[in-house]
Amino acid sequence: MTRSHYSQVFALKVLALVMLGGGSIPVYADDTDDQAKDRDLDQVVVSARKIEGPDQAPSQGSLVATQPRSVINGEFVQDNDSPLANYTDIIKFTPSVWTVDPNGPGMMENLATSIRGFQDGFFNVTFDGIPWGDSNDFTHHSTSYFMAQDVGAVVVDRGPGNAATLGDATFGGTIAVQSDDPRNLRALSGELSAGSFGMQLAALRYDTGEISDWGGTRAFIDVKSFTADGYLSNSGLWRNNAFLKVIQPLALGDSTTITVASNLNKLAQHPPIGATTAQLAAYGVNYSYNTDPNSQAYYGYNLDRISTDFEYIGVSSQFNGWRLNNDVYTYAYFHDGWNGEDVNGTQPNGVVLPGDVPNGTMYGPNDVPGQLLTNNYRSVGDIFRLEHDLGPGTAQIGAWYDHQTNYRALIEVDMSDNEAFNPSILGNTVPNEIESADRLMHDQLFTDQEYLQYIWHVWSDLDLTGGVKAVRFERDQYAPVNQGTLQPLVFEETWSRNLASLDAHYKIADDWSAYAQFSQGFLAPNLNVLYTTNPAESNVQPQATNNYQAGTTWANRGFSLSADVYYIDFNNEITSRTVEGIKEFYNEGGTLYKGVEAEGSYVLGAGFTVYANGSLNAAHSKTDQTWVPDTPIRTGTIGLFYKQGPLQGSLMDRYVGARYGDVEDAYPLGGYSTTDAALNYTFLNSVGALKDAKIGVTAQNLANKTSIYFLSGYTGGGTPLWFTIPGRSFQITLSASLQ
After folding, report:
1. Whole-number Å distance between alpha carbons of 149 and 204
2. Is residue 383 within 8 Å of residue 398, measured between CB atoms?
3. Considering 32, 324, 395, 642, which has the largest number of Cβ atoms within 10 A of its Cβ?
């Protein structure tokens, strides 16, 4: 598909929006017994606000879902998670999920988040129903956008969804982060936190309440600032964040609502990359960087500065039996980074490894070699959805358009000479950016997806949903210096496929449902497939899956239980490993993913609730039956929760089973468990304007386990780099509001 055709498609969608007078924000299911209606809306966007089971549980299944789903409500997040938690920390207690946060909760970008063994880049992440991420490899930056204070709910869908599920990598599942809504009463709320690893946080939120003179407008703005030294040595992080959300009802049609949201984030960090076993033995299990300006591992030479924004305008409208939704959005990521050429001690100053420096770039005998990284991108897009009751069911159509532009550069620099570009040995006397570049690339990704779906209400308790989605990706690259080849490249490539889905949902009783699903998945190759002199000859093929799963959920206010089985036939799987902080990708061939998952909670009484989940997971190559790296053979959680009067508390243990850090038999890693706890006491409910004054303590890894648990990559010489479990940490939080 050409860019002009993409523009025409986008223009037609905008024209349709104007003519119909509506658009979309995410639709949430109400707490109602009309589950048929809930399922219709549930096909449009993920519903996280419907909590059917015990409300203290960290997560639970959904009676209306047509695939395995775990729902985490915002109240649980605020009471039990660290105030610095990223969305990846929030989901760590759900079935089949494994996350790695080696610097302490929220204190660095998660290096690995896995669902059933699918790594980041193989599943979708959305914010208020909008897919987002890096176009180069479909991964996400967990510290660079949203903070826990603004989270209303998080849903983990462990499956590809149906035709109406939009995103670049939906076949591995979807993590759906949903923002909090403005409150109905005007209030000024504050939060102060301090804790281990030098952590300090201050947050201030203002809610307007419902403004009747403006037709019921509600809005809030929340600003946060925190600093942390981090668990790992000399790996601090500084972060400022602001979030605004406005909901405006309109007297148009049966009902129309406009939502405007904006998130701004600024971040500075010394990003850890792991340590060799020799470094861990010499400097301690939390070693990352040193304080020596003559070293490539000097923390001052290893720094990221990142600014992001995320905005959308959404409209949801109902008129004459039609339900129309549309989001117009943009988000951006601006990243300047510096790093030593080799921070792990295998490459001395003034020396470079063969092939590491382009065009013969050289250093003086005492110079500190390093790199300057730039990664800037912006996405602009639109999501359009329309549905109408037709015959014995509901017809749905929709489309998603996204255009991301990306500039990526990596320049060899002399860190000891004000980061000057290094001249090459070709005789240049003036530093030259081109001749010092590992990459200089301008690339674009055009994504276009359209779907048609029908929900057939076979009878009041049985729904069959069938649909098809057309998926197209186009990559355009203009590279004065192409990564991998160091040569110029101008190239474009398009991949497309039609994907089918079919699912059944049966309401066995008011508190019991079952489902079965078949769905196809597709993921275009990452940008790295263009890192050759002739990408047209690349043998890296698009990834495709056939997904089969079935499950059941039983939920009421005293008890919830859900269980499922899955089987995923994955062809042409592209996998990667990291060398000196750069991922290398290749086709691993066909793999099979299969497993069993369950979670449940039970109200014991007297304020106590018990929760448990578990999974058995397998991921093997079809050709030689070897195990897929970073896929735990099992996961499990057990927790006890208390809430009565002014006191609330929790105690949770998370187990992650054995896995391989790389190909099977290379770096086997044993299972481990960590225990977290929380205790909150509301010492003042209401005195005049002061409301809900509360003090809380959250703690992670109570047993202070610090064993190696993650292979983060390799040095240029092939030496493994490791992370250890971050040691025990505590956070104390004081919060209150004025109304």
Report:
1. 10
2. yes
3. 324
Distance CA 103, CA 310 (A): 26
Q: Which CATH code for domain 3-492+516-738?
A: 2.40.170.20
Gap between the Cα atoms of 546 and 245, Å rounded? 38
**Alpha carbon distance 592, 141 (integer Å):** 28
- Mark 238-264 as b/e (b = at least 16 C-beta within 10 Å): ebebbbbbbbbeeeeeeebbbbebebb
Residue where the block lists tokens 């959305």: 126
Question: Which pLDDT score is estimated for 664?
Answer: 75
- The whole-number pLDDT of residue 353 equals 43
Q: Where is 40: in which H helix or E strand?
A: helix 35-44
Three-class SS state of 233? coil
For 482-525, give the DSSP string.
-TTT-S-EEEEEEEEEEEEEEEEEEEEETTEEEEEEEEEEEEPP
Query: Where would I find the beta strands (DSSP E) of 229-302?
Result: 237-250, 255-269
Cβ 514 vs Cβ 467: under 8 Å: no
3-state SS of 514-544 is: EEEEEEEEEECCCHHHHCCCCHHHCCCCCEE
- Which phi and psi angles does 663 have, rounded to 5°? -55, 155
Widest pairwise Cα distance in the chain? 81
Return d(Cα 492, Cα 590) in angstroms, integer.
27
Q: Residue 284 region, left (φ>0) first, then alpha (ψ -120 to 50), else beta?
A: left
- Report the alpha-carbon distance of residue 375 to residue 395 in Å, rounded: 41
Q: Which of 650, 652, 689 is nearest to 78 (CA)?
A: 650
Pairing between β-strand 124-127 and β-strand 174-179 as defined by DSSP bridges: parallel
Q: Which of 501, 499, 509, 498 is closest to 464 using CA atoms?
A: 501
Q: Let me know the angle formed at the C-alpha of 687 by 681 and 693, rounded to the nearest 5 degrees.
A: 25
Residues of the chain with pLDDT under 50: 1-50, 353-362, 422-431, 582-583
Domain boundaries, the chain: 3-492+516-738
d(CA 189, CA 693): 10
CB atoms within 10 A of CB 355: 8
496-534 burial code (b ≥16 CB/10 A, e <16):
ebebebebbbbbeeebebebbbbbbbbbbbbbbbbbbee
Look up the pTM and report it: 0.89
Are 25 and 128 in contact, with CB atoms under 8 Å apart?
A: yes
- Quote the pLDDT of residue 418: 64
Q: Left, alpha or beta for 61 (phi > 0: left; psi -120 to 50: alpha)? A: beta
Residues 47-76: b if buried by 16+ CB within 10 A, e if exposed: bbbbbbbbbbbbbbbbbbbbbbbbbbbbeb
Question: Which residues make beta-bridge pairs with 135?
Answer: none
Distance CA 709, CA 724 (A): 5
419: β partners: none
**Residues in the chain, total:** 739
Under 8 Å CB-to-CB from 94, ≥6 apart: which residues? 58, 59, 70, 72, 156, 599, 613, 637
Q: Report the alpha-carbon angle 308-141-204, nearest 5.
A: 55
Span between the terminal Cα atoms of the chain, in Å? 55
